[in-house]
Amino acid sequence: MTQNDGAGRTAVETFLAGQRGESSRVTLRPIAGEDQDEFTELVRASADLHLPWMSLPTTPQEFRAYLERFDDPSSAQGLLVCVRDTGAIAGNININSIIRGRFQGASLGYAAFAPAAGQGYMSEGLGLVLRYAFEQLRLHRLEANIQPGNQASLNLVRRHGFRKEGYAPGMLFIDGAWRDHERWAITSTVAGEPHPTLPAR
């Protein structure tokens, strides 16, 4: 079962139902198998924008392997940022490595696609994802690990209140090399019931 067939889709739909009337130009939906052709075409068209910052699937085989990462939505969720008026995919934001218990945290990975880049869609999409993660998933902390030269990504997290927490040499293997990353994070200020896996003390 994929996230689009079960809990991941339900959680996103429940969250969006509570956002009716909001003025964002974008919406979110879980990535699914039927997105393969549009997604891989957008990745190929965005090569100059993405490298060496990230590596995304460009072939059907790579896409299928990528999609498997989100089979268990309690561990990771792949979300598409879509333009509300047209349904076109503007980018993607993944909530990766979800850890419950005392941590209640996850890491974010994201990319804009060239046809929609520079129009503010990803900023609006990240705002939605932060609310989804903190309100619906009841996470406490989100991290974003960003290469120091990726100014667009650094500016994005700064706009949303992330704080810089440190520097990690050789943190991730991307585009054939181990890349240094800055570590940025944000914690929830949402009041409400904690996730049931959080210990009482």
Keywords:
201 residues, alpha+beta, Aminopeptidase, 29% helix, globular
Q: What oligomeric state do these chains adopt?
A: single chain
**CATH topology annotation:** Aminopeptidase
Query: Strand percentage, roughly?
Result: 25-35%
Biggest sheet character: 7 strands, mixed
The domain tally reads: 1
* Structural class category: alpha+beta
With strands numbered from the N-terminus, the spatial order across the biggest sheet is 1-2-3-4-5-7-6
Q: SSE string, helix = H, strand = E?
A: HEHHHEEEHEHEE
Overall CATH architecture: 3-Layer(aba) Sandwich
Distance between the termini: 35 Å
State the CATH class: Alpha Beta
The pLDDT mean sits at 92
Share of helix, binned? 25-40%
Overall shape: it is globular
Poorly predicted ranges: none
CATH superfamily annotation: Gcn5-related N-acetyltransferase (GNAT)
Number of strands: 7
Count of DSSP H/I helices: 6
State Rg: 16 Å
Task: Describe this entry's structure for a reader.
The chain has 201 residues and is of the alpha+beta class. The protein has one domain: Aminopeptidase (3-Layer(aba) Sandwich). The chain is 29% helix and 30% strand. It is built from 6 helices and 7 strands; from the N terminus they run αβαααβββαβαββ. A 7-stranded mixed sheet has the order 1-2-3-4-5-7-6, with helices on both faces. The longest helix has 16 residues.
